[in-house]
Amino acid sequence: MHISFALIALAAHIAALVRVLTYRKNGARHRHRVSWVAWALVAVSGGSAIELTLHAAEVGFFEAGTAVLLALFVFGARGNVARLLRSDEP
């Protein structure tokens, strides 16, 4: 059963990674801090995907759930990391 959690987490990390990498800014301005956060998100997702391929037996339910939630947030923001960081409160 752990291998199914590993496959779910691996798919979620790769999906979030690809979505951030394929983001098109369409006229949005470039922000250096946001680009560093996006770079860190890509690095962590890619590193997690590599780690999951090497140590798949160590994945639990909560780790897979965290990866899925991260992918859902990234897809909800359409890959726009600035939108993930923005708060709507005044």
UniProtKB/TrEMBL annotation:
Q: What domain of life?
A: Bacteria
Its source organism is Paraburkholderia agricolaris
Q: What lineage is this protein's organism placed in?
A: Bacteria, Pseudomonadati, Pseudomonadota, Betaproteobacteria, Burkholderiales
Q: What is this protein called?
A: Phage holin family protein
Alphabetical list of Pfam families matching this protein: Phage_holin_3_7
Keywords assigned: Membrane, Transmembrane, Transmembrane helix
* Annotated TM spans: 6-22, 34-54, 60-77
